[in-house]
Amino acid sequence: MTFINRNLKPEATPELDYEFPSFQKFTLSNGINVFLLQRNELPIVRIIAQIDSGSAHDPLEKKGLARLLSNCIDEGAGEFDALQLEEEFDMLGTQFNIDCSDDITSFNILTLTENIDRSIYLLSLILLSPHLSEQNFEREKRKVLTRLIQVKDNAEYIANRNFYQKIFGEQSFYAHPSLGYDYTVKEISNNDLLHFYKQYYLPNNLSMIIVGNISKEQLVNNLEKYFVNWKSTSHIKQENYSEAVTSQSYYFVNKKDAVQTEIRIGHSTRQLVYDNFFKKIFLNTAFGGYFASRLNKNLRERNGYTYGVSSSNLYLKYSSKISIAASVSSEVTRKAVDEIFYEINKLKYGLNAEEFESVKSYHIKKYPLDYETISSLANRISFKLQLNLPDDYFASYINKIKDTTLGEVNSIADQFIDETKCVAVLVGSKEIITEQFADKNLIELNYNGAALT
Amino acid sequence: MNHLDLKYEKYKLQNGLQIILHKADKPHLAAVNLWYKVGSAYEVKGKTGLAHLFEHMMFQGSLNVPKEMHFKYIQEAGGSLNASTAFDRTNYYEKLPSNYLELALWLESDRMGFFLPALTQEKLDNQKDVVKNERLERYDNQPYGLAWELILANIYPQDHPYNSSTIGSINDITSFTIDDVTSFFKKHYSPANASLVIAGNFEFQQAKDLVEKYFGEIPDFSDSKLPAARKNHLIENKIFIHYDNVQLSRIYFVWSSVNFFHEDESALIILANILTDSKKSRLYNSIVYEKEIAQDVSAYNFSGKFGGHFMIAATVKPGKSIEQVKDEIFGELKKIAVNSITETELLKTKNILKSLFIYSLQRLDSLADIINSYDYYLGEPNSLSFDLERFTNLKTEDIERAANKYLTSPYFELRILPEKDR
């Protein structure tokens, strides 16, 4: 018995008007580009100092170099040894970490406004005068080599590692994981680290993103004070991107006694084309980018094959990839793979009006949520810089989504993911996979991606 | 301005549903956070994982909301949503543009009041498969993934509410019937057994009217009973060896500790931090940094409504001895008693925590959940300052006392060793 009409879904009242907060852009006297976005709700500041080089710049025979440098660079700097340096950050209650990915290495700080001066000072020591001592290097290298033993336990990691290698092709600098491989890390010396540091850690190869409770005057003052003596020099980037062309193929890695199979399916694609950027947001979201997506409805909500499945369209500086990821019960591996290919095939015919409107509504309205925290704002600016998106990217975002039509989206639906190029990487029980895929030309790989004959 | 002072209004509807309203400085957002006072601690033997499976069923639709639409409606409104099951409670939450507050209240009230008419065998079978996969993904197929359950089964007695994990065993998940789900709902999902927090940008009177409109007519049928509280104290050391498909050995030491907000809990949390949370922390510095006999080491204190435990875990480096790692850990624990905690160690940890409290205010959904949590455990939603003071008031001797009191008693030792060494 109910006294109100519960059949009617309540609608929003009134429409919200939300604009992405505008950021200021300026350059320090030594050439560092700075992006500042003020947010004053809480007395906190987020800093991302972004070096425009990452594991994509690893020399081919020394994969893992950029990441190892990022592990060593805060092991002592300026007047502090490694332990003192960390203690300095801890005393301030400042969170500090370094993240090394394909195209960039970022130094991330979250601090109370009252401690910003000291936090920036510590950051400047790490960037300008790291010790990079032999002793610390040797210890960190041993740690990475142990980590590379440990990752064999992790089906997810092995699946990603082998998948990237196959979709980008072994000649591409995007093919290897940032950790490198055991046989390449063994070749790295502390001199290699010093060389990489001198080559890429330069003011004209760095951007600073600052979001939070701080005025421009104070920020400029803090940054100039500590970074002014750091001079730019010309540098040449070793970049050797080659585009791999893949054909439909099935690889697997045996993980004894696995109760699930890790599945990765997809291929690499050309680097970002801004004209298609928004259309692809629609396609990816409807396909596997949110809970109500086609893949999730099929594999999870209809068939119960998995706890979750998703697709992602990841952009890198010189390339991008489209991929589907899921962990499924071993016994339904083949069924799940077939369903994924069924959905890939179906996507060629485009979205229907209902799912198109649903995705449009989702992206327009989640804007305030996307930018709730200073970290999410800073990450978005970082994304814009990495991909060299236009300056009006933020201001025009909502209108670009609003103006996108179903016809435009469907005009590129058959190019979004090409099943003839799809590489499938499966990590699980050899017995089950070989039995279920007896009709396919399966290639077995070891943990590092080498084919086993 | 005191950011930790959370103003709120708290009241109850006729049917016993508790409401807490908090206006936050988030011009475009509203968060809805609903706690049901039931978690895996309330399950019976043979039906482990039922509270969590039930959480999944709550997204399978209700009388006026078809399957899959709860997620779709919130996401189309630009919101985020989820739910989680713990030992003590199950929470359901939405964060969305503030002009969609009514949508979230409509959806939450429909499943609170009209869940059973939409329950079908097909939905149950589907979610049993999904949850089995969740278990495989998060426990069985993860390296060291069974450690948590082995610890719970050994540190808490058989009849203790924390003896099993929230996910439940595969056999129990397989055994769930429509009757199990129905009786679980009838027992625990009454409005009087729930607390609803609304936080963000809204008008108080309007929010109250909406809450009354959607939740007011749901009848109270409260039948939930607290599980029997039991002490969990080991009387002698226990050891368990488990072989797994892992490359490196890992060793765990677990002691019984205290309930949530017990007077010693804050000292144990700080102790864990002093032991393993930085390069200079006692254990990390000794076994990872200096001696390099371990790849990693971590420590934490868990405290809940019905019990708690303190754990230290370390992964042994290739070719190094598990016994040596154990000896070093216990050596460092002994030192704490004689080589007292320094003022610097304590101050550093306090400063980290102070900042964390401020950082935690950034997300409205987390804030709404914190409010419900304080209300549930302390009866006072505005407890951020009180909570922080538990840490800032500590002295070095409090940490030493806690170490001596809890980490010298009997412990459970778990060793997870590589299958190839069997």
In short, what is this structure?
Chain A is of the alpha+beta class. Chain A contains 18 helices and 12 strands.
Give the helices and strands, then pairings.
The complex is a heterodimer of chains A (453) and B (422).
Chain A: E1 24-27, E2 33-38, E3 44-51, H1 65-72, H2 82-92, E4 95-100, E5 105-112, H3 116-128, H4 134-150, H5 155-168, H6 182-185, H7 190-200, E6 206-212, H8 216-227, E7 249-254, E8 260-269, H9 274-289, H10 294-302, E9 306-315, E10 320-329, H11 333-347, H12 353-365, H13 367-370, H14 374-386, H15 393-403, H16 406-411, H17 413-416, E11 423-428, H18 430-436, E12 442-445
Helix pairs in contact in A: 1-4, 1-7, 3-8, 10-11
Chain B: E1 9-12, E2 18-23, E3 29-36, H1 50-57, H2 69-76, E4 80-85, E5 90-97, H3 101-113, H4 121-140, H5 147-155, H6 170-175, H7 178-188, E6 194-200, H8 204-215, E7 238-244, E8 250-256, H9 265-276, H10 282-290, E9 294-303, E10 308-316, H11 322-338, H12 343-359, H13 364-378, H14 384-392, H15 396-406, E11 411-418
Parallel strand pairs in B: 2-6, 7-11
Antiparallel strand pairs in B: 1-2, 3-5, 3-6, 4-5, 8-10, 8-11, 9-10
